[in-house]
Amino acid sequence: MISFKDYLNKFEKKFVSLNFTKETNKFLFDYAIKNGFDLSAKYDGTIQAPEEFRFHTTIYYTVNRLNAKNETISLDQFKVEPDHLELLGADKNIPVLKLKNKGHIKKLRNIFTEQGYRDTWPDYKPHISLSYNKKAYNLNKISLPVFDIVADSFTVEKQ
């Protein structure tokens, strides 16, 4: 039998991310480097090898605690559709490839919403971050990718 305290300790804030195929990750890496984005910074500002940059789309970054298993689930592959480039973050200094909120992305998010997930962010803006090196960027001369962006899994993990 589990104690009530141990049961409560199973509840955690969760990060749910949509993951891309190896081929898509390679294309995204090449696209980011070609367009001058620095992949050596992690979100928290620490340094990493550029090859370790994790391209993903956040489905949820919860404000509430949930009793959900940390796992990666494979999906039938599907394409996501880029919309435009944008600068996000409090200081508008994180370059992202904004995605259209439709199809499988929207369905996946709705599934988690129905399970009680509540987001930290007030508005959901599906995107792929292209760098966490926070600085002023001019995105006007950068074209959208011409390759398919293909998702193949999602991950639920502790924040």
Task: Explain the overall architecture.
This protein is α+β, with helices and mostly antiparallel strands and 159 residues long. The protein is built from 3 helices and 7 strands; from the N terminus they run αβαββββαββ. It has a 4-stranded antiparallel beta sheet. Strands 4-5-6 form a 3-stranded antiparallel beta sheet, with no helix packed on it. It is globular, with a radius of gyration of 17 Å. The two termini are 27 Å apart.
How many H/I helices? 3
What is the terminal-to-terminal distance? 27 Å
Topology pattern, helix = H, strand = E = HEHEEEEHEE
Structure class: alpha+beta
Averaged pLDDT: 96
Query: What coarse outline follows from CA principal-axis ratios?
Result: globular
Q: Helicity, in percent?
A: 10-25%
Strand content: 25-35%
Strand order in the largest sheet: 2-1-7-3
Main β-sheet: number of strands, strand sense, barrel status? Answer: 4 strands, antiparallel
Q: Could you tell me the number of beta strands?
A: 7
- Unreliable sequence segments: none
Topology:
Elements: H1 4-8, E1 12-20, H2 22-34, E2 57-66, E3 71-80, E4 82-88, E5 94-99, H3 103-114, E6 127-129, E7 149-158
Antiparallel strand pairs: 1-2, 1-7, 3-7, 4-5, 5-6
Condensed summary:
By secondary structure, the protein is an alpha+beta fold.
